[in-house]
Amino acid sequence: MASIVKLGKGKQPPRAIDFFDVEGKRQRLRIGKVTHDVATEFKRRIEKLIGFRRLGQLPDSETISWLNGLSADVRGRLAQFDLCQLPEFRKAAPKLGKLLDDYVEQKRVELKASSVKRLENTFQKMKDYFKPDTLITEITTSNAKDWRIQMLKSGLSEASIRTNARNAKSVFRDAVERKYLSENPFLALVSTSVAAERTRFVTEDETNRLLAACPNADWKCLVGLARLAGLRVPSESHSLNWTDVDWNKMRLTVFATKTDSTRIVPISPQLMEILQENYQQAADKDGRIVALTGHNRHRQMIKIVKAAGLEPWDDLYQTLRRSCETQWAMTVPQHAVSAWIGHSELVSAKHYLQVTDALFDRVTGQDSGDCKQKSAAESAAVKPGIEGQDGESESGDTRTELEGAAKNPDDCRGFLDVAATCQVVRAGIEPATHGFSVHCSTN
Q1: Distance CA 112, CA 120 (A)
Q2: For position 176, what pLDDT does the model report?
């Protein structure tokens, strides 16, 4: 431990710091006429420097920033006790601009182009605020917090600010791992993702109005795939081919570039009709389902929303996808919904699922007139086909249909499709069990 020593009398006498160096020898560093508070802070800094030397570590960013602010005379006195290797720090630690540029080049081979673009956007903000020629050792936790405040003042959303904080943390974590720094100055910034503001649910009636307002079959497909199948626009909707449609089992095979994974999504009867209409008009029966270009896609969607008599909402396509998942979750187990939508149940709960008026009405017994959600049994009454296939669903006892599915799943629409239309009601007070696949006794 170091201690403060008065070298004279008076209100502000000359002072010195007594301490034991890394070899255990008692040393004295004269710091001149300073206040007790300044001497106390100096003592604390010397104790930290001794600790870094004993552990063989580089000083943290705040300590190096403090060293940079000292006069050459004081730094020289610290260097006599082997506590100030500032020239070595300056040589080892790169400037901010080089650190950020090198990190981007490193990540180009690991990340997708869209992710690299987001990194570059963050790094440009860092360069604008901290300046490219700044040594990374001079950036402190206090500077990082000031950067966040500046982004808030500039009008950036909380979600964008947290994204920038995550990117800043990642590049400076890499700097710590490369031994340029001993700690990450951005570590204190909040960077967890912000839960979506799920204030807009597109009802079934509004969906029908949107589809009716679409100028052609391509746009109907795009709106239908987003709202009725929960596809991401445009990464999933525009990469979907006609060969990805299983017309018999009413399923889509969707490849998600975002997660580099493939999932199976059910096709509702309403979406099937839309797909059939577009398929009949398609020149290339193996080509893309949605042939729309990216030009003015957002602007055209706003026109469709207004033509449907609705006010445009934020996140046009994301809101349609979110509404699809919410509607599915009203009738289907959440693990299945999350598998169809392409993310975890945790992400669903945090960013997607909404509490709609229909759910309130279900408990209160009132009918608000808004979107009565159909159950899976009601919506699976029709099985459309394509070019010569019978468009009517088979009639018959539900139990017979389920038994047939269990014996030969390939001869019917598949277990999930049959199970979605079934209800097994137990005797007593047990409620209906959706999708129950095992016959049970009512005793």
Answers
A1: 13
A2: 87
Q: What is the rounded average pLDDT of the residues 274-283?
A: 92
Q: What distance in Å separates the CA atoms of residue 271 and residue 282, rounded to the nearest whole number?
A: 16
Distance CA 398, CA 400 (A): 5
The predicted-structure confidence for 13-49, as pLDDT tens digits, reads as follows 888 889 888 788 888 988 888 888 888 998 998 888 8
Q: Say if residue 366's pLDDT is above 80.
A: no
Is the pLDDT score of 56 beyond 60?
yes
Q: What percent of the chain has pLDDT over 70?
A: 74
Amino acid 308: pLDDT: 96
Structure tokens at 112: 């997708």
SS (H, E, C) the chain: CCEEEECCCCCCCEEEEEEECCCCCEEEEEEEECCHHHHHHHHHHHHHHHHHHHHCCCCCHHHHHHHHHCCHHHHHHHHHCCCCCHHHHHHHCCEHHHHHHHHHHHHCCCCCHHHHHHHHHHHHHHHHHHCCCCEHHHCCHHHHHHHHHHHHHCCCCHHHHHHHHHHHHHHHHHHHHCCCCCCCCCCCCCCCCCCCCCCCCCCHHHHHHHHHHCCCHHHHHHHHHHHCCCCCCCCCHHHCEHHHEECCCCEEEEEECCCCEEEEEECCHHHHHHHHHHHHHCCCCCCECCCCCCCCHHHHHHHHHHHCCCCCCCCHHHHHHHHHHHHHHCCCCHHHHHHHHCCCHHHHHHHHCCCCHHHHHHHHCCCCCCCCCCCHHHHCCCCCCCCCCCCCCCCCCHHHHHHHHHHCHHHCCCHHHHHHCCEECCCCCCCCEECCCCCCCCC
Which tokens is 155 given? 């009008």
pLDDT of residue 182: 76
Phi-psi region of 179 (alpha: psi -120 to 50; beta: other; left: phi over 0): left
144 vs 69 pLDDT, higher one: 144
* Cα–Cα distances in angstroms (integers) from residue 116 to residues 101, 127, 148, 327, in the given order: 11, 16, 21, 34
Contact 322, 354 (CB under 8 A): yes
Q: Is the peptide bond before 185 cis (omega within 30 degrees of 0)?
A: no
Q: Find, among 264, 281, 288, 283, the residue nearest to 386 by Cα.
A: 281
The pTM is what?
0.51
Least confidently predicted of 103-107, 237-241, 254-258, 421-425: 421-425
The crossing angle, in degrees rounded to 10, of helices 96-107 and 158-177 is 90
